[in-house]
Specification:
Blueprint lengths: L2 H14 L4 E8 L2 E6 L2 E6 L6 H8 L4 H10 L7 H6 L5 H21 L1 E9 L13 H16 L12 E3 L8 H9 L6 H8 L3 H13 L3 E3 L47 E2 L2 E2 L1
Antiparallel strand pairs: 1-2, 1-4, 2-3, 5-6, 7-8
Helix pairs in contact: 5-6, 8-9
């Protein structure tokens, strides 16, 4: 059974068992599905920006304001009530942001490598989407996105190719302008998504289209550092100090030992 088949089976079992807790996915990028009564109520992955990152990058909330919201909410991981109360976003807007982040994190995990899945039962529910999503429907949506991405004329992987702008074109949309300004040949589509505060799937599709239109090109992978081999019959030898150079001081353990009491001798009543 492949890693993705194992993930599909684990998600199906969590739904069938009305599981509440975490399904921890080990792999690259890996992540966690949070379940409530068999439905996925949040997904976290280092491979995709979460709702917090999307809100902060959008400018609706500053870093200082977010820290204050967390303190006000008693250290809550998702201070939705405080966000709404302070007018930083409405309830409908938060639902949309959380749903987008949930699907994007599931896509990032499906696009990566799955090694194992582990259930962890929890009584403290972490929910960002109150009604939740059926787990298999969520995985089917991720698979559909992968299929759509592969069908593009110039498909790319979220965490593989490293695009760079190819010319003087500054982009026709705000997203394209941002991507072109940050595409330096070192960042993948995933890196760019975190940089511009957009979903990984959205950014990966846009990068694929810009590559196809010639606005970007893929930077070649870094060349390996050449290692010069020694000629036959030669081997590494300890370095000899140049003539006249003093040898290093002896280690403490190499110093001669004195008998107890030999450092201080009384002479005429005076310690020497």
């Amino acid at each position: 059974m492949s890693g993705h088949e194992h993930l599909a089976q684990a998600l199906a079992e969590c739904g069938r068992d009305s599981f509440t807790g975490e399904l921890r996915v080990r792999g690259t990028p890996g992540g966690t599905f949070h379940f409530g009564d068999g439905r996925v109520v949040a997904v976290e992955s280092p491979g995709a920006p979460g709702p917090e990152a999307l809100l902060l990058r959008s400018g609706r909330v500053s870093g200082e304001q977010w820290a204050e919201l967390v303190r006000e909410s008693g250290g809550s991981r998702w201070p939705a009530t405080a966000i709404i109360a302070h007018g930083y976003a409405g309830a409908a807007q938060l639902r949309v942001v959380c749903a987008l982040a949930l699907h994007d994190a599931a896509f990032a995990m499906a696009a990566g490598r799955v090694e194992s899945c582990e259930r962890v039962t929890s009584t403290e529910l972490f929910a960002q989407v109150p009604l939740g999503e059926p787990p298999l429907r969520l995985l089917q949506d991720a698979t559909r996105r992968l299929t759509a991405l592969a069908a593009l004329p110039h498909p790319v992987h979220p965490d593989r190719e490293r695009p760079v702008r190819s010319g003087a074109d500054h982009g026709s949309t705000a997203l394209r302008r941002e991507l072109l300004s940050h595409a330096d040949g070192r960042r993948t589509a995933r890196d760019l998504a975190f940089r511009v505060g957009r979903g990984v799937y959205t950014v990966t599709v846009e990068v694929a289209r810009m590559l196809d239109e010639g606005l970007m090109v893929c930077a070649p992978p870094p060349a390996p550092v050449p290692v010069r081999s020694l000629p036959d019959g030669h081997a590494l030898r300890p370095r000899k100090p140049p003539q006249g150079e003093q040898p290093p001081p002896a280690a403490y353990s190499d110093l001669p030992r004195r008998k107890p009491g030999s450092f201080f001798r009384l002479r005429n009543g005076t310690a020497k």
